[in-house]
Fold this sequence. Notes:
Layout (H helix, E strand, L loop, with lengths): L2 H9 L5 E5 L2 E6 L2 E6 L6 E5 L2 H10 L4 E3 L2 H5 L2 E5 L5 H15 L2 H4 L3
Antiparallel strand pairs: 1-2, 2-3, 3-4, 4-6, 5-6
Helix pairs in contact: 1-4
Amino acid sequence: MTADEFRDIALSLPEAVEIGHMGHPDFRIGKKIFATLGYPDENYAMVKLMPDQQQLFLEKHPAIFSQSKGKWGLGGATLVNLRVAKPKAVREAAIVAWRNIASAKLAEKL
């Protein structure tokens, strides 16, 4: 998967926008980030999951998803290895991350 393919998935979600943060593109609803690109390097993206959600993705797709280092990872920051990522799995994770911050009314749109 390319960075542009990840971007397309993130921006396909209702009201998602791309904004730069700390030198990396990120994807938000309002001021809340649900995904980023280019961290820790250009071969990765990140989706912001809840720890229990993260565990499910790590178990189901261990080659694609891994826990980010430190407290961010313990809080659910989940790395996406773009070199081996499959669009279906990434879209599923992006939707979960998006739903975590979407209002109930907005979540109904998806």
